[in-house]
Amino acid sequence: MARILVAGSIAYDRIMDYGGNFTDSFVPDKLHTLSVSFQVERIKEDFGGVAGNLAYNLKLLGEEPEMLGTAGSDFGRYAEYLQKLGISSASVHIDPSDLTSVAHIVTDRANNQIAAFAMAAGAKPYGPLPEGDFKCAVLGAGCVSDTIAVAAHAKTKGINYYFDPGQAMPAFAADDLKNIISGAAGLFCNDYELGLIEEKTGWNEAALLTQTPLLVVTLGAKGSRISSAEGVIEVAAVPLTKLVDPTGAGDAHRAGFIKGILAGLSLKQCGQLASVVAAYAVENFGTQNHHFTLAEASERYEKAYGEKVGL
Asked: Which residues form the Carbohydrate kinase PfkB domain (predicted)?
């Protein structure tokens, strides 16, 4: 089976819950000297990072992802975990002089999040890019210089790539961001990030669609919006059995959408499958602790949207 090249951060996630609302601790006229502390209710370390989360969900969906990124001297237990899942880490570069990236994520009662991400080894170059037959490439937040390099590599090799700058947005120069978007097979972001993209590039949604044929904007509990030459499609979110943790929902959504594209689904069906996969993610604590089979995902899709889907 042809592989999907998945480029982005590889990290250990330390996820915490805060029982109140962040906004209750902010004094509007004192934000210029902000100093707050939150007492969290639990902390748990999990395997994470954008590349890891995407690869995990794509594997659940029956694809063969190949992770591309840089990890540190403590990557051993992550590598063993990936091996058990059957996910290739052959293209993960190890920098023994530093630690693997780590994310500290605090979620409040309203599902707002505050995160601190230490790039550490993840800021180092990948090294040589892998050769071979790839179905497509997915570029997520990670080392900016390497995101630029992978996009250029994909263009040279004629590989369709999908781009989600995510939390790395502030690190991109405007021209680099525009160059990656131009020629991408699709651009993914949430509604907040869309505003940042528009501000940094000077392109509104209509202008973005002259650079890439597909724009997918996630809207949290309101679902998602898909824009293309076919028009705008609004996709409702899948009803949840419980809301546990939104961390990693965007990565799960993107994996589901790309699986739909590869399966030849319509854009609306791609968005609906993406919402199904995202629902599994938010119903579990952490980014890689949900499980489903293709049969289970298909059944949930049919229950949510009243139609069958061919996976």
From this structure: 21-289
